[in-house]
Amino acid sequence: MHLCHPVPVLDQDHAAPATPAAAGATRGRPDRCPGVTRPWLADDGALVRLRLVGGVLPTPGLRTLMELAEEYGDSALHLTSRANVQIRSVPHRDGVLPPAFVAGVRASGVLPSMSHELVRNVMVSPLSGRVGGRADLRPAAVQLDRLLLADPSCADLSGRFLFLLDDGRGDLLDRASDLAAVAVDADTVQVRAGSDQWGRVVEVSEAAGVLHSLVRRFLALRGDGPAAAWHVDELDVPLLDHDRDERTRVTSPRPPHGRLRQVDGRSTEHIDVPEGRLDADLAARLLERAGDELVVTPWHSVLMPDLEAR
């Protein structure tokens, strides 16, 4: 099972690929991965996870979240292996967070939906569209998020259900996921379901729609109630049955820290966040130099993109 446990670690999104559960697995309760509407109650207060589609964190949002972490939490944001952020040690009353804290999170722009907050688990190759890779998959991620938010049935997905958009460099492919799209060239991607099911090669512009259709099929097949499947690999029937395109057999190391040249001539700076703890001092340095957004990576680091070339 993929559970969220109250263990004293900074990252509860699990960095290593998980072993897929057996087909037909059953459970007696829903998952308990935390969010604003369902915080995890630890000894030091509530833990709140905030999903960032593609790791994108607008600069004003970072400023607001740091203020909330200072006022209500342990004064830091904690980065996770799914490129999300967490605020820890938030006070609560029987699991209910302070209304002003919730209002602040909503004002930050990272919580567009209370009903769908737990299912916005969309990872994207962090440098996609800026440095390397075969295709820019950022627009596909935005479109997929919009489709999930607009579909009431998608709110029933497990908080562990994961989408991956790998831009063809292979930096995310080794991760366990439920639905994925892997770029095979600048214009097309191949879809993957579960750990080893492959689908058609489709246009990048079609990727979000295809993934959304597969989500709906998964929801129709997974069963009902607390015993319903959380993951594609738990289904008794496959979602896809095509051969794998050999161009998807790619791997990529983590990018080095420091300045990276973008395809548009500007640069991205890759900055280490020790132990994934983004404290007030580091946040202030980032905010002093950042443009419109930062990108949280799965590697306890952040990208500061679109900087003027030196």
Can you describe this structure?
The protein has 310 residues and is an alpha+beta fold. It folds into two domains: 34-111 and 257-310, Sulfite Reductase Hemoprotein, domain 2 (Alpha-Beta Complex), CATH 3.90.480.10; 122-248, 2-Layer Sandwich (Sulfite Reductase Hemoprotein, domain 1). It contains five helices and 15 strands. It has helices at residues 59-72, 99-108, 138-150, 207-221, 280-289, and strands spanning 40-42, 45-50, 56-58, 77-79, 85-90, 122-124, 163-166, 179-183, 188-193, 197-203, 258-261, 267-272, 277-278, 293-296, 301-307. The strands form three sheets. Strands 1-2-5-4-13 form a five-stranded antiparallel β-sheet. A five-stranded antiparallel β-sheet has the order 3-14-15-12-11. A hairpin with a 4-residue loop joins β8 (179-183) and β9 (188-193). The radius of gyration is 19 Å and the shape is globular. The termini are far apart.
End-to-end gap: 48 Å
CATH topology of the largest domain: Sulfite Reductase Hemoprotein, domain 2
- Count the E strands: 15
Major sheet attributes: 5 strands, antiparallel
Q: Cα-atom Rg, whole angstroms?
A: 19 Å
User: At CATH's second level, what is the architecture of the largest domain?
Assistant: Alpha-Beta Complex
For CATH, the homologous superfamily of the largest domain is named as Sulfite Reductase Hemoprotein,Domain 2
Spatial shape: globular
Helix content: 10-25%
For this structure, what is the CATH class of the largest domain? Answer: Alpha Beta
Strand arrangement within the widest β-sheet reads 1-2-5-4-13
| Count of folded domains | 2
